[in-house]
Design a protein that fits this description.
By secondary structure, the chain is α/β, with parallel strands linked by helices. Helices cover 38% and strands 17% of the residues. It has 15 helices and 18 strands. Helix 8 (203-216) packs parallel to helix 14, helix 11 (302-312) packs parallel to helix 12 and helix 12 (334-344) crosses helix 13 (355-364). The protein binds adenosine-5'-diphosphate and magnesium ion (MG).
Length: 398
């Protein structure tokens, strides 16, 4: 069992102690302002709890995709300002060359007891993604304890998620612990029937989890662009739909496994198609395996919505990852919205994960009626797939 922040506080007097907290502050920024602070808000319970216990906090996160060097677009300054507003107290921040740069180390050394310091973007240092022990050693020197609250980064073995956790007594933050509990219910004797809804664009990203899900679930409903690679595997015609021809063989294997195990793998019977992806483009409904040349399947069709709805009725556990159509461009959001309404209305344990899936769900206003909305897309898939997350394994290592 992982140590929680609560247990850390019970077991040790944190007054005057320094705690390094790995947070997920990878938020959208436009013109120097944070445009969606959901992830910052999500970290507040852990931070408040540690501050109430008298700890001095050093927070570290990655932001965007700088290439292992300082990049003005990805400085943590706007995040520090927003966090300061949300916490109602000063958040110390200095623009530096990276979280272990000499001027960063000096700034850390000047932190008053009980203060909050946000370190510079971890990915300004190329050693972060290399899980470099020397970078981890400098970060560990800042603190007496390490807390990881960044579930969304836990599937990566990076210096701030893995190597540093091995150097300090550590604990899982509240958000991390909640994610592990909520997702654990999916893989650990889920209440049946267990129905999975899988959509999105990249089949190759999701085939691993799909192979595992056809072993766990009673039914798997496949929508989004993924469905067309499966149609190809079955010998269908998919027109100009988005497909990944190199994974057709794996798709065939998934279909065979599902069949052998008696798991229902449901492809959308029909699709809403268009010749161009534009709001207001002329649309037509075609069987998903008989889409005319030049036409793309962009959403699940009305028959598919009816069949998915019927398959969801009576479910006791539901896991949904990936929009069922190009929800960003109406009217191709209709299938995703219809199924979101059905899932939100079920008397079942419901979990939704994935960045775009959450955006689609939020657009319907139904997120309050989902039991758990996972902050980690890739991490939640890898967890459900049964992979040991390096950031979680390392927390249990001390
Ligand atoms: P998540 O972020 O929830 O894991 P993904 O990133 O896998 O989801 O997929 C989301 C993307 O899939 C969206 O941008 C959406 O437009 C796209 N998509 C869904 N259905 C289709 C389709 N039929 N054709 C092309 N793109 C699609
Ligand atoms: Mg996505």
């Amino acid at each position: 069992m992982l140590r929680t922040v609560e247990q850390l506080i019970e077991g040790a007097d944190l007054a005057g102690k320094r705690v390094l907290v790995r947070v997920d502050f990878n938020v959208p920024i436009d013109d120097g302002e944070v445009t969606d602070d959901t992830r910052i808000r999500a970290a507040l319970p852990t931070l408040r709890r540690l501050l109430d216990a008298g700890a001095t906090l050093y927070l570290v996160s990655h932001l965007g995709r700088p290439k292992g060097a300082p990049d003005e677009r990805y400085r943590m300054g706007p995040v520090a300002r927003r966090l300061s507003q949300l916490l109602g107290r000063e958040v110390r921040y200095r623009a530096t060359a990276g979280p272990a740069a000499p001027e960063q180390q000096a700034f850390v050394a000047e932190a008053p007891a009980g203060s909050v310091t946000l370190l510079e973007n971890s990915r300004f240092d190329a050693r972060e993604t290399e899980n470099d022990p020397e970078l981890a050693r400098v970060l560990a020197s800042y603190a007496d304890y390490y807390v990881n609250d960044a579930f969304g980064a836990a599937h990566r073995a990076h210096a701030t998620t893995e190597a540093v956790a091995r150097l300090l007594p550590s604990a899982a933050g509240d958000l991390m612990a909640a994610e592990l509990r909520a997702l654990g219910r999916l893989v650990d004797e889920p209440e049946r029937p267990f129905v999975v809804v899988l959509g999105g664009a990249k089949v190759s990203d999701k085939l691993g989890v799909l192979e595992r899900l056809v072993e766990l679930a009673d039914a798997v409903l496949v929508g989004g662009a993924m469905a067309y690679t499966f149609e190809l595997a079955k010998g269908g015609r998919v027109g100009a739909s988005l497909v990944e021809p190199d994974v057709v063989d794996t798709a065939k294997r998934v279909l065979a496994t599902a069949e052998a195990r008696g798991v229902r793998l449901v492809l959308p019977a029909d699709s809403v198609c268009a010749e161009t992806l534009e709001a207001g483009a002329a649309t037509a409904v075609h069987p998903s395996g008989a889409i005319p040349d030049g036409w793309m399947g962009l959403d699940i069709g009305p028959e598919a919505v009816a069949e998915f709805t019927a398959s969801l009725q009576g479910a006791r556990t539901v896991f949904w990852n990936g929009p069922l159509g190009v929800f960003e461009t109406p009217p191709f959001d209709a299938g995703t919205t219809a199924i979101a309404k059905v899932v939100a209305g079920l008397d079942a344990y419901t979990v939704v994960g994935g960045g775009d899936s959450i955006a689609a769900l939020n657009a319907t206003g139904l997120q309050e009626r989902i039991d758990h909305v996972s902050t980690g897309g890739g991490a939640s898939l890898e967890f459900v797939e049964g992979a040991e997350l390096p950031g979680v394994a390392a927390l249990g290592a001390d």
